[in-house]
Amino acid sequence: MKATFDDERFGYSIDGESVDLLTAKGASAGIAREAKANLSILIQRLQNEQSSLQEADDGFKRETKMLHMAEHALAHGGVDQVKDWAPVEAIVAEQWNGNEDFPGLCRFFEDIQNGRYGTQTLSSGVLSRGLQYANAGRATYENERLAAQMRLRDLEAKRVTGAPETHCDDCPAWARLGWIEAAVMYERYAIGMSSCNVACYCVIVTRRAAIDAAQAVGWRALLPLLQSAARVAGSGAAIAGALALFRYAGNNPRAVSFALELLMRVLETRRA
Question: Is residue 167 predicted with pLDDT exceeding 50?
């Protein structure tokens, strides 16, 4: 079995067969499940007094760091595709220190030490809260995948909700926004920004940004050059240029229509 990563489609292929978005999302969920299992063991050992609070703290930091590194690598198509690990370091630091939306691991272990979950025997609440930190991997996967795509091309993005029982009130409203600029999605409506926070089960899908009127003028300006190429060098070079525009257009209907128009004009010039 050979797995490859397609920069153009920004997706996976295994033995030449495309891996759909939900399958890749399932791989992300698998990473989170493994992290939850490991965190659960750390908490159980702490509850059974088989480890110290410091040992549990160190274990949580180690597991959450590995979790976010794995999700980051998956979002980029594998470890070999990752060119910068700095975003992961920032995410891990935020997980440890917390932010306005949720308390970090430091606060979690302070609460344990201060008796919030019991002084003699730790309550079940410590497990529930501890496992929430594994859910944060979903946000890392979705948001890093979107950020990586945005660095390659202009995109539009939209949110697709999970099953009704797994999303909050924000997610359906944000899904109804439809296609918006990917940058706006990343800055205002990213996974983890809704009221369900890192427990979000939504998926962010993308497509090439629709070309505007100014871009259309620029595309049509290529027509004389392609027509000249068809007359002087033969249609091969001109058609190759027009077909390159098809590749750029991707699945964007407006962009494809402009590329098709150019190609038809080139063929008409060749026949003339």
Answer: yes
